[in-house]
Specification:
The complex is a heterodimer of chains A (159) and B (597). Chain A is built from 7 helices and 4 strands; from the N terminus they run H-H-H-H-E-H-H-E-E-E-H. With 159 residues, chain A is α+β, with helices and mostly antiparallel strands. In chain A, strands 2-1-3-4 form a 4-stranded mixed beta sheet, covered by helices on one side. Chain A starts with 9 loop residues before the first helix and ends with a helix. In chain B, strand 13 and strand 14 form a beta hairpin. Chain B folds into 5 domains: 106 residues, Glutaredoxin (3-Layer(aba) Sandwich); 210 residues, Rossmann fold; 84 residues, Ubiquitin-like (UB roll); 88 residues, NADH-ubiquinone oxidoreductase 51kDa subunit, iron-sulphur binding domain (de novo design (two linked rop proteins)), CATH 1.20.1440.230; 57 residues, Alpha-Beta Plaits (2-Layer Sandwich). With 597 residues, chain B is an alpha/beta fold. The chains are: A alpha+beta (159), B alpha/beta (597).
């Protein structure tokens, strides 16, 4: 769990309240609310979850359960340029592991971590659906296809 | 409406867009405008053509010219040469790999010749963001026919007689599913579209939603009429932003045209569709887990019965079908059950879309009649194995499926044959592997996935698969014993028998099928401590052939752990205790002096 303690600002709680209200504070819409909240904050720290729990009048444990269940939700802030290496089957058989190792080595971080300067974070994802370009690496929204371990340096160099 | 002399179709699928097809589209439009051709030539973006290997694809109609790997800067040449002077740009045409001939007409390309496109009928033909183009290709005609000419029972009967089975993996007869919901009593019923394509390496649902979202919208409305539901829900992966966007546009346009909403086509039937997002959980492909996820809960499955058709979303009768299943509905209604059931094999009717990927020349999305053989798919449509390597196995059905080998190549593909051979249809992922792939590692790859994605509710899946994974790890690290192989088999069988949902019940399949077909590879790992494919690092040993080594020191200088010693111009030596088997030395050696065994 995250050990970073943050305090939500007034404008942030207003925004969260607005998100919850746009779904009528309906617990059945929890996943949609979390999507919106993560889109706004970049991640879902404990404080955000507590606030949503109050708004929806449901236990925070339930929300924590949902947040940790789905891989799309994260409780840690991502880097400015989140890097995702596709480890779907098509990319795997075309050498995604070596590409992932090279990214880890170059940035000196593991999967799920962020570089100390907050520039890059690294995650794996299961299939972008661009299997024709395997192996695939995404930086932010941009997709890089047919990436070789040697090509990692050039990609990181763009940022 | 303007009548254009020529249409230039640019692929706007995720694969091609990743290779800058949106910029290409813009450049083509600018060039067409600059040459004042806007009244004669229409440049438009379509859904996926399927031939992702050669993307971005540009097709010029009416002459069917098929350009491959087109770059944004090629736009000017296409407009100047082809559109204005009528000369095809040869260098961009598809090149037949065997004859090196440039093929100008897409119908003559081997990749398309054996295909029969029903579910993908509009992908690559229409602009998915324009409902008029869908309607021009018979979109929403089936809905009109059902609403004005058929009773729900009669429409269900057509689907039943067609023999259509669920394309999401299970293969349950679709008509029967609809009938069950139709007969269930409830004041409110739901129609759900399962677009949570979690199988890594499969992208057919995404391509259908990106290329022809109206086919799904229409079929959901038909399903609503047949089952008595007034609300549809699409459960879609948040990782598919483009598909979400196009679906949203399609729903809005259908509402505007009165094809969704109150009193559709001036009948008493009302139906609308909402979108719900998944958040990355493979188990949510299972229908009860999917329903829980839509209710805002953790996506954990529950025991069936009750089936969703009796008690589903919010406890109401619910029909859950996969995207590809829906895409087949309208053609069946329009062309009849006999037409559909004349295609395919005895128990599997119609066609199936496969996502062909891995070590194959033509990666892409294909649709073939059921009963086509693996050989036809891999070697004719797929163009054979990459880099002239030898075919080893094809994995079907994703993490739930199994590996098929050379001896299965001539088996006709259908639901029952695949299960009889230890694999399954799944959603249609087909990953081809060559001689360099280690089957023990492949089995572990899939197990890694299922362990990661297991929801943790039932013990056999949560704990059992973890144990299976540990045993595989042990074998891969070179510490396995023959008893471990027996243990894999026994534990695998127990997990299959005792798990709660489809995920656990099929999770051991990749291991069991590789044990059946590649026992010799397991034995090689366990007894000889060797990986026949040379993939498992722990079993590799790097050494220097003294005769070839000239003592250039290139290897020693590049070794990240200083495992290589030796004086200049003297034979070098690798200390296998220090070596981390990274392969940096092999890449640097110009004299082929380093070997792995």
């Amino acid at each position: 769990m995250s050990h970073i303690k943050i305090e939500l600002k007034q404008c942030e709680t207003d925004k969260l309240r607005e998100i919850c209200q746009s779904f009528n504070n309906n617990p059945g819409e929890l996943i949609n609310i979390l999507h919106k909240a993560q889109h706004t904050f970049g991640y879902l720290p404990a404080e955000v979850q507590e606030f949503i729990a109050d708004e929806l009048k449901m236990p925070v444990a339930k929300i924590y359960g949902v947040v940790t269940f789905y891989s799309f939700f994260t409780m840690l802030p991502k880097g400015k340029h989140p890097i995702s290496v596709c480890t779907g089957t098509a990319c795997y058989v075309r050498g995604a592991e070596k590409v992932l190792d090279e990214v880890k080595r170059s940035l000196n971080i593991n999967v799920g971590e962020t570089t100390p300067d907050g520039k890059f974070s690294l995650s794996c994802l299961r299939c972008v659906g661009a299997c024709g370009l395997a192996p695939v690496v995404m930086v932010g929204e941009k997709v890089y296809g047919r990436v070789s371990p040697d090509g990692v340096k050039d990609i990181l160099g763009e940022y | 409406m303007t009548k254009y002399k020529m249409h230039v179709l640019v692929c706007g699928g995720t694969g091609c867009r990743s290779s800058a097809s949106d910029l290409l589209l813009e450049n083509l439009r600018t060039e067409v405008e600059n040459h004042k051709l806007s009244n004669d030539v229409k440049v438009l973006m379509t859904g996926c053509f399927g031939f992702c290997e050669k993307g971005p694809i540009v097709k010029v109609m009416p002459d069917n010219t098929f350009y491959t790997q087109v770059k944004p800067e090629d736009a000017a040449e296409i407009v100047n040469e082809h559109l204005i002077k009528g000369r095809k740009v040869t260098r961009l045409l598809y090149e037949n790999p065997e004859t090196s001939e440039h093929v100008g007409d897409s119908e003559k390309i081997e990749f398309y010749r054996k295909q029969l496109r029903i579910a993908l009928r509009n992908c690559g033909f229409i602009n998915p963001e324009n409902i008029d183009e869908a309607i021009a290709r018979d979109g929403y005609q089936a809905l009109g026919k059902v609403l004005t000419e058929l009773t729900p029972e009669a429409a269900i009967d057509i689907i039943k007689k067609s023999g259509l089975r669920g394309r999401g993996g299970g293969g349950f007869p679709t008509g029967l599913k609809w009938e069950m919901t139709h007969k269930s009593k409830g004041d409110q019923k739901y129609v759900v579209c399962n677009a949570d394509e979690g199988d890594p390496g499969a992208f057919m649902d995404r391509s259908i939603l990106e290329g022809d979202p109206h086919s799904v919208v229409e079929a959901m409305a038909i399903c609503g009429y047949c089952t008595g539901a007034s609300q549809g829900l699409v459960y879609i992966r948040a990782e598919y932003p483009l598909a979400v966007e196009r679906l949203r546009i399609a729903i809005a346009q259908a509402r505007e045209y009165g094809l969704l909403g109150e009193n559709i086509l001036e009948t008493n039937f009302s139906f609308d569709i909402d979108i719900r997002y998944g958040a990355g959980a493979f188990v949510c492909g299972e229908e009860t887990a999917l329903i829980h996820s839509m209710e805002g809960l953790r996506g954990e499955p529950t025991v069936k019965p009750p089936f969703p058709s009796q008690s589903g979303y919010l406890g109401k009768p619910t029909t859950v079908n996969n995207v590809e299943t829906y895409a087949n509905i309208a053609p069946i209604i329009l062309k009849g059950a006999e037409w559909f059931s004349s295609i395919g094999t005895e128990k599997s009717k119609g066609t199936k879309v496969f996502a062909l990927a891995g070590k194959i020349n033509n990666v892409g999305l294909i649709e073939v009649p059921m009963g086509t053989t693996l050989r036809e798919v891999i070697f004719e449509i797929g163009g054979g194995i990459k880099n002239g390597k030898k075919f080893k196995a094809v994995q079907t059905g994703g993490p739930s499926g199994g590996c098929l080998t050379e001896k299965h190549l001539d088996t006709p593909i259908d639901y029952d044959n695949l299960i009889a051979n230890g694999s399954m249809m799944g959603s249609g992922g087909m990953i081809v592997m060559d001689e360099d792939d280690c089957m023990v590692s492949v089995a572990r790859f899939y197990l890694d996935f299922t362990v990661d994605e297991s929801c943790g509710k039932c013990a056999p899946c949560r704990i059992g698969n973890k144990r299976l994974n540990e045993i595989l790890d042990k074998i891969i690290l070179g510490n396995g014993t023959e008893e471990d192989i027996d243990r894999l088999r026994y534990l695998g069988a127990v997990i299959k028998d005792t798990s709660l949902c489809g995920l656990g019940q099929t999770a051991p399949n990749p291991i069991l099928s590789t044990l059946d077909n590649f026992m010799h590879e397991y034995l090689a790992h366990v007894i000889d401590h060797k990986c026949p494919a040379g993939k498992c690092k722990s079993m590799m040993k790097y050494s220097i052939i003294p005769e070839n080594c000239v003592g250039c020191t290139a290897c020693a200088r590049n070794c990240p752990v200083n495992a290589i010693s030796g004086e200049r111009k003297q034979t070098h030596f690798i200390d296998s205790h220090i070596c981390i088997k990274c392969g940096a030395c092999i890449e640097r050696c110009k004299f082929n002096a380093i070997v792995v065994n």
